[in-house]
């Protein structure tokens, strides 16, 4: 039972005692007076009888009766007073015992409250410290993420730069290859024209061979001339012999002419043999070239032209492939840059959350201060705690909630406003 | 030549993330940890094309910074955007009265931020 109720019990008991005394006193006085009056009235004859038998004084008898009645009445009243006083004091003693017991309990409770407040302060400070460390850790982690994200972006930018440079180099190579391709195409055309040229060359050789064969006719003519010259020299030698001494000189000339005719015949034979051998060699080689070599070479030349055309087609394919590749990589790189930018925007949540945790830390500090100073006037503690929490709520209300919360955006306080 | 943006915020994460985000978009970024540092940079000759400032900062808050920055020569028409967690109308009105160009409540996505900057900084 609370101590205030004990106080009420004491008051109620005292009031009851006073009322009872007042009532009892009234009744006893009334009854006593009535009893004395009746006694005096009834004992009137007893006085005369007493006087007659005992010879006593009437005044003495009256005084004794009246005094006995008053004494009896007071005795009864005293008994009643004693009983009531005993009961009231007994109740008071019990009440005080309970009051003392409750005071002891109150002291223990107050001590418990004090220890609880100290513990709350200690816990608040520990939580506040943990919150501080959490903010610091998330900040460090966020900075790390920002650094890595920036590095990612830098790498993507380097990749793009490299690709741009590669495109420049590829363009230069393309021009170079285009030039080379023109050369190769010219060579291919040359190779393509090779059979025609070979054919022309062969016709020229045939013509030469024909001319050489013609030369064979010339050696026959020389031999014919030599034969006639020899006959002429023989006739000249006969005529010189017939002339005698006068024809001796002419005979020498005829001999020399015959010798020249013989030499011409030998030379013509030698030329004819040489021409025949050369003709046979050329014809044999030319026949081989025409029948075997040329055919194979023409096939190879045709294949070479085909390969060159295929090479050009392949080069076009590769060029197209790299063009598409560069376009795709550029597109993805742009998309990557956008994503990185959005990630960096999202990291602002760390600051928003950090500020909210800071407000909670401030509130915990404030509450700890209030709890520490509560021993001065504990009755003010509830109001002070309420004020601390109201401050926190007010501070929170002045800051926007994050967009991830379910709360709809306040149209009066837009997130982006240009003045 | 790329435009220069001065980022003023006491939070290292905000400064770093905004710097990286704006640099990706092709801006040159200068940074300051509070209003005092920012004013000092402006006085030292840095002429940003736009200023992005927090409101709650130690030493000198965003509201005082806007007031002091506007008083500097050549800074009368430079766009100043407030980027803050503060949402109360009274502070918005005060910033507007002092010459702020806009009010952005954190967090603002990268694309949204660039869009707003391009709105107030033509040719960026």
Automatic annotation (TrEMBL), chain A:
Asked whether the UniProt record includes Isomerase among its keywords, one would answer no
The record, for Gene3D superfamilies, names: Methyl-accepting chemotaxis protein (1.10.287.950)
Instruction: List residues traversing the bilayer.
Output: 27-47, 59-82
What segment(s) does the record annotate as region Disordered? 399-419
Which residue numbers delimit the Methyl-accepting transducer domain?
Answer: 133-287
Q: Which domain of life is it from?
A: Bacteria
Which Pfam families has this protein been placed in? MCPsignal
According to its record, how does it sit in the membrane? Answer: Multi-pass membrane protein
Q: Where in the cell is it found?
A: Membrane
Protein known as: Chemotaxis protein
From TrEMBL, chain B:
- Highest taxon, organism lineage: Bacteria
Give the sites modified to 4-aspartylphosphate: 54
* Keyword list, A-Z: Kinase, Phosphoprotein, Transferase
* Gene Ontology biological-process entries: phosphorelay signal transduction system
Single GO MF annotation: kinase activity
Enumerate the spans annotated as Response regulatory domain: 4-121
Per its record, how is this protein called by name? Two-component system chemotaxis response regulator CheY
Taxonomic source organism: Marichromatium gracile
């Amino acid at each position: 039972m609370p101590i205030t109720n004990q106080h009420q019990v004491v008051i109620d008991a005292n009031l009851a005692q006073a009322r009872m005394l007042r009532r009892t006193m009234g009744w006893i006085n009334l009854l006593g007076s009535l009893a004395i009056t009746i006694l005096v009235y009834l004992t009137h004859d007893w006085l005369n009888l007493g006087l007659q038998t005992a010879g006593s004084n009437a005044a003495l008898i009256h005084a004794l009766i009246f005094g006995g009645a008053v004494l009896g009445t007071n005795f009864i009243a005293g008994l009643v007073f004693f009983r009531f006083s005993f009961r009231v004091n007994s109740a008071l003693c019990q009440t005080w015992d309970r009051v003392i017991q409750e005071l002891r309990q109150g002291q223990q409770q107050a001590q418990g409250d004090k220890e609880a407040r100290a513990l709350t302060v200690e816990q608040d400070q520990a939580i506040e410290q943990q919150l501080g460390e959490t903010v610091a850790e998330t900040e460090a982690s966020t900075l790390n993420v920002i650094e890595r994200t920036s590095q990612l972006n830098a790498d993507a930018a380097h990749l793009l730069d490299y690709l741009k440079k590669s495109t420049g180099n590829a363009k230069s190579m393309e021009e170079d290859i285009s030039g080379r391709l023109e050369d190769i195409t010219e060579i291919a055309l040359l190779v393509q024209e090779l059979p025609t040229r070979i054919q022309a060359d062969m016709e020229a050789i045939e013509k030469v061979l024909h001319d050489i064969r013609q030369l064979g006719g010339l050696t026959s003519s020389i031999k014919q001339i030599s034969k006639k010259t020899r006959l002429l020299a023989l006739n000249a030698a006969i005529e010189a012999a017939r002339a005698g001494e006068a024809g001796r000189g002419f005979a020498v000339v005829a001999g020399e002419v015959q010798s020249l005719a013989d030499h011409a015949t030998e030379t013509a034979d030698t030329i004819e043999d040489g021409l025949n051998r050369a003709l046979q060699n050329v014809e044999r080689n030319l026949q081989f070239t025409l029948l075997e070599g040329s055919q194979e070479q023409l096939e190879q030349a045709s294949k070479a032209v085909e390969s060159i055309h295929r090479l050009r087609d392949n080069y076009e394919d590769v060029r197209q492939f790299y063009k598409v590749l560069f376009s795709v990589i550029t597109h993805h790189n742009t998309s990557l840059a956008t994503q990185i930018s959005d990630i960096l925007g999202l990291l602002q949540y760390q600051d928003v959350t950090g500020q909210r945790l800071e407000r909670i830390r401030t509130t915990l500090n404030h509450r700890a201060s209030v709890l520490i100073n509560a021993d001065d006037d504990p009755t003010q503690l509830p109001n002070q705690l309420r004020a601390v929490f109201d401050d926190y709520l007010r501070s929170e209300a002045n800051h926007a909630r994050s967009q991830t919360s379910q709360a709809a955006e306040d149209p009066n306080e837009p997130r982006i406003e240009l003045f | 030549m790329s435009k220069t943006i001065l980022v003023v915020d006491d939070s290292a994460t905000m400064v770093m993330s905004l710097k990286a985000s704006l640099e990706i978009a092709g801006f040159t970024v200068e940074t300051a940890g509070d209003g005092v540092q920012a004013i000092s940079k402006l006085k030292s000759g840095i002429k940003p094309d736009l200023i992005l400032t927090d409101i709650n900062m130690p030493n000198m808050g965003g509201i005082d910074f806007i007031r002091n920055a506007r008083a500097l020569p050549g800074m009368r028409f430079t766009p100043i955007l407030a980027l803050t967690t503060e949402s109360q109308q009274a502070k918005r009105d005060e910033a507007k009265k002092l010459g702020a160009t806009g009010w952005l409540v954190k967090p603002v996505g990268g694309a949204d931020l660039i869009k707003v900057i391009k709105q107030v900084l033509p040719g960026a």
